[in-house]
Amino acid sequence: MALKMYKFGMLAILLCVFGAFGAAAQPKTPVPYPTPERVKPGFPTVAPPRPPREVRQTTERSIIVDPNVSIKLCVAEGSLKINGWERDEVRVFVRAGRLPGFKVLEKNHESGKANWLLVSHVRAEGRPPGPMSECLAGQEIELDVPMKAKVDLTGRSTETTIDSIKKVSVKTAEGDIAIRNIAGGINATTYQGNLIVESSEGSIVLETTSGNILAFGVNPGQIGDLFKARAGSGNVTLQQVEHRQIEASSISGIVNFKGKLLTGGLYSFKTSSGPIRLHIPIKSSFTLKAAYGFGGFDSEIPLKIEYKNETDGGKNLMGRLGTGDSNINLTTSQGSISIKKQL
Asked: Do 122 and 142 meet the contact criterion of CB atoms below 8 Å apart?
């Protein structure tokens, strides 16, 4: 009896041991990890609607203005023509481009007509502003403005022609600029393009970084008006420029002057590595100062040399023709200087 009880006890112990081992050997059910949310709380799950695309169309608009109106204008791209006419009206025409519009910035107190006007692009509702988003753009852009108008133009990439208005201020990133028949002065700058000015009056300032400058048939509007032309890598050519103050310079291009020297005139012509060429009447009267480095000096007109100095660093001379009524300063680092008889 005692033996049976002993065997039964041992069997119970073995079953408990193997039962516990079997339970430990059973695979555990994995605990699921929380799935991360793909969209953070507070953000919409649906993409916002895209803004409407810019519509390119052909449009013409006009507005009655004061004859002495000042016009502010920006053009992103396109061929631009601004013409003066005898109407007291501004008309804008855009072919295959942005929709133009007018914003009156100021009115004449007596007539109630606009005397300060902004011409800009009318953006579509819901379209966000961007660089130059207020500027006009199109295949062709034309403005007819009163002949007494003043225009302030900025642009990015435009071929610009301006004709027969009172005053012009224009600055573009690239593109040629041609200006003619301006009565009250010009200030024009393009970084990549040529500048041409003809038959105009007033104070004139022209500048291009990469391009040529040509001016002919221009005059001062009043005593003391300055003519200034500056080119980076292009040539500066002046013909029949009758300002008494002229400053013309180029870094690597040629500076050409052809015309008469006026009594009391102040003329300054400079280059870094290009030549300076003057074509003047043989009966001119001037005092000349020239500073040149590695180039030479040559004159077809006999000058009375009053001072000349040559060193390793450069050469200097001062000469006179006639009574020396005007003053000419010529400076070049590596170019040559030549004075020719004007035929």
From this structure: no
Q: What is the mean pLDDT of the chain?
A: 87
Q: What is the mean pLDDT of residues 280-295?
A: 93
- pLDDT computed for residue 131 by the predictor: 54
Tokens of 92: 């804008």
Q: Is 1 in a helix, a strand, or coil?
A: coil
| Residues 23, 175: Cα–Cα separation, whole Å | 87
Q: 3-state SS of 166-235?
A: CEEEEEEEECCEEEECCCCCEEEEEEECCEEEECCECCEEEEEEECCEEEEEEECCCCCCEEEEEECCCC
SS3 state at 331: strand
Contact 259, 301 (CB under 8 A): no
- State the Cα–Cα distance between residues 262 and 304, nearest whole angstrom: 19
Helix (H) or strand (E) holding 338: strand 337-341
Per-residue model confidence as pLDDT tens digits over 123-173: 765 455 555 678 999 999 999 999 999 999 999 999 999 999 999 999 999
Query: Containing H/E element for 21?
Result: helix 2-25
Q: How far apart are the first and last CA of the chain?
A: 152
Average pLDDT of span 254-280: 96
Does residue 142 sit in helix, strand or coil? strand
Report the candidate in 235, 237, 228, 238 with the shortest Cα–Cα distance to residue 251: 235
Instruction: State yes or no: pLDDT of 39 exceeds 50.
Output: no
Task: Name which of 284, 287, 283 is nearest 329 in CA terms.
Answer: 287
Integer Cα distance of 112 and 106 in angstroms: 9
How much is the pTM?
0.82
How far apart (Å, rounded) are the C-alpha atoms in residues 249 and 205?
Answer: 12
